[in-house]
């Protein structure tokens, strides 16, 4: 069987997943951006009334469809960020973005999109943040995973620039970096 080129859940996935479990409320409408295997979308589907899960990588979409085949409240599609998502007013949007700064931008395999955050590690995340206000419901939250390698202070300034408040709600030290989950609030 062909091995799919999809991000394997790791410490970052588990930290975000744990935080999503804490913040998740019954009956909400949720979006899992960059779903990969669909693990976080699966957690969301336990309480959400509806979950949309998207990934730019077609192999991730295929795998998430297989993994979540029994979940009737999950819709999975291929999308570059919000491009193919018509719905608005999500109460919770989770995103574990590709956050590593990578100097060589010539690598083209789909799996590269799982961790390659451009030269500064913030390329996809900032594109996501620029569109967030169109998709988050009033009172809604977005949980994003970043690392000390992603220059957290610049990410926090960007969140203020787009008009939202934030709070760091989880942290975990691993090897040479510290992972953190930022809760962005649309208040
Ligand atoms: C670090 S992986 C996280 C995967 C999964 N959510 C997890 O936590 O294990 C980042 C994911 O974002 C996807 N991705 C990268 N750029 C994207 C984009 N522009 N739009 C949608 N998904 C994207 C990648 O294909 C990859 O599956």
TrEMBL record:
InterPro entries, per database record: Euk-Arch_PrmC-MTase, PrmC-related, SAM-dependent_MTases_sf, Small_mtfrase_dom
GO molecular function: protein methyltransferase activity; S-adenosylmethionine-dependent methyltransferase activity
Transferase found in the keyword field: yes
GO biological process, one term: methylation
GO CC aspect terms: eRF1 methyltransferase complex
Entry keyword set: Methyltransferase, S-adenosyl-L-methionine, Transferase
The name this protein goes by in its record: Methylase of polypeptide chain release factors HemK
Taxonomic classification: Archaea, Methanobacteriati, Methanobacteriota, Methanonatronarchaeia, Methanonatronarchaeales
């Amino acid at each position: 069987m062909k091995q799919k080129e999809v991000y394997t859940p790791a410490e970052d996935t588990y930290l975000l997943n744990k935080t999503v479990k804490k913040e998740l409320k019954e009956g909400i409408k949720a979006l899992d951006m960059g779903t990969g295997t669909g693990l976080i979308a699966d957690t969301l589907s336990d309480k959400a009334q509806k979950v949309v899960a998207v990934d730019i990588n077609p192999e991730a979409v295929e795998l998430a469809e297989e993994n979540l085949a029994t979940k009737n409240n999950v819709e999975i599609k291929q999308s570059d960020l919000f491009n193919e998502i018509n719905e608005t007013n999500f109460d919770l949007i989770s995103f574990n973005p590709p956050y590593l700064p990578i100097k060589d931008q010539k690598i083209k395999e789909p799996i590269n999109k799982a961790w390659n955050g451009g030269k500064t590690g913030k390329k996809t995340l900032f594109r996501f943040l620029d569109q967030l206000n169109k998709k988050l419901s009033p009172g809604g939250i977005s949980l994003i995973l970043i690392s000390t390698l992603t220059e957290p202070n610049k990410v926090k300034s960007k969140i203020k620039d787009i008009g939202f408040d934030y709070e760091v709600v989880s942290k975990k030290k691993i090897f040479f970096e510290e992972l953190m989950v930022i809760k962005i609030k649309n208040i």
